What we know:
Low-confidence stretches: none
Distance between the termini: 32 Å
Shape: globular
Strand content: 35-45%
Radius of gyration: 17 Å
Order of helices and strands: EEEEEEHEEEEHEEHHEEEEH
Amino acid sequence: MQLIYKGKTKDVYSLGNSQILLKFKDDVTGENGVFDPGANTVGLSIEGAGKSGLKMTQYFYELINSSNIPTHFISADLDDVSMTVKDAQVIGKGLEVICRYRAVGSFLRRYAAYCEEGQELDRFVEVTIKDDERGDPTISDDALEMLGILSKSDYQELKKLTQQICDIVKEELAKKGLDLYDIKLEFGHDKSNGQLLLIDEISGGNMRVYKDGEYIPPLELEKLFLGQ
């Protein structure tokens, strides 16, 4: 098992055979010791955050796979706090795809002159470039194509998959009285066949979820949702 790189919230190892091992850590994104799924730096460590994130990730990936939506997920090992996935090529130097159901976070900060906090949005999809130095700027589908990062047709496929996946997550959370406000996903291309697929994790660490108008922190969300 060869270490490829150490990420903010996961370490990545090559297993050979076109498979990768993701080792979840207790580090989460945020600023000044406050968790923020939209932040681009590690802000704090929360004991148990890695296993909590993996539990939710396993649950949602198994559900999404059963819906015949392409993902990199193969299996998870909760004892080892790790996940085995297909080897995928990130898009460009890495993109993040946000699906927004409510106006919060950076969307609210940018457009507060035109909306109110918590205002409903219709599965609004936006893409940001992974670039810590420049604060992960948003990028349009035109710019993605002009810069040779993602074709217009691939962007439309990415948008469609994002909305399908996020609707599944939102509907599952709603069964427990939980309301998904926004969620951040990542996509890549399967190195074996070039297929566009969902990669990385789906957990409390990359979504904002509320109950009765109150924000639910990641570890509490996992307990409320999975009942463990």
